[in-house]
Amino acid sequence: MKEGTSAGRPHPLSESIRNAVAIFAQMGFSVVLGPELEDEWHNFDALNVPKDHPARDMQDTFWIKGEPGKLLRTHTSSVQIRYMETHKPPFAIVAPGKVFRNEATDATHEMQFHQIEGLVVGENITMAHLKGVLTTFYKKMLGDDVVVRFVPSYFPFTEPSVEFYVKFRGKWLEMGGGGMVNPKVLENCSIDPNQYQGFAFGPGLERPMMVRHDIPDVRLPYQGDLRFNQF
Ligand code: YSA
Fold first, then answer.
1. For residue 165, is it within any domain?
2. Which of 62, 110, 207, 220 to mutate to test the pocket of ligand 1 (most atoms within 8 A of CB)?
3. pLDDT tens digit string along 78-125?
4. In what side-by-side order are the strands of the sheet with 148-155?
5. 166 in a structural domain
6. Which domain holds residue 109?
7. Gap from CA of 203 to ligand 1 centroid (Å)
8. How many domains does the chain divide into?
9. What CATH number should be reported for the domain holding residue 186?
10. What pTM was estimated for this model as a whole?
């Protein structure tokens, strides 16, 4: 190799996205994609987040100027709706992609980040399946000794809901949210909640990258520092 050059490698974020997709694909999930430019129905309404409900404030939204009702998706949960509107259960999908939030940045928050949405709908699906899938995912992603903690939470589109955490630099770091799909959401997509249940989850992908590479600040890998692409 020429002096002064070094071998390149995938950016840690690309690696995080590719690993996550590969792990879920190995577990039998199909991989689907959805649009980053969304509408209110798929991002909020169909997910049981009514207009003027305080839950909408949980995610600060970038609205598109001059196009009422259009927004940059605040989470990949919009892809759940797009998929359920056009497919009949049973199915198990993941949807990776960029999401956007109009919020102040800090060491664990960027304005643009990535999530991988998971959705399983079928018969006799329980919360135990959700815990098993996510625990397996983080063990494969971060190593067998990782400890995943599940804590009760609230999302309008799941009931019951959980948040899950992994330990990083001595503190619990929130990795994502999930739960059992709210029957109202199934109904909004013309799926009979008396016959089918489902679980869904939406982990971020920047935070596992931070844990895996011991990166202390989520903003660092977004600043074009070429050392992230070198061995
Ligand atoms: C909940 C229930 C479901 O059935 C499906 C999905 C979900 C998750 C929900 N859609 C959601 O977005 N929850 S969240 O706002 O807590 O974000 C999920 C994860 O994204 C966080 O735990 C974190 O890992 C990551 N995240 C959130 N804001 C971030 C961020 N990562 C980097 N920068 C930010 N600003």
1. yes
2. 207
3. 999 999 999 999 999 999 999 999 999 999 999 999 999 999 999 999
4. 30-31, 91-100, 112-122, 197-203, 171-181, 158-168, 148-155
5. yes
6. 12-222
7. 6
8. 1
9. 3.30.930.10
10. 0.95
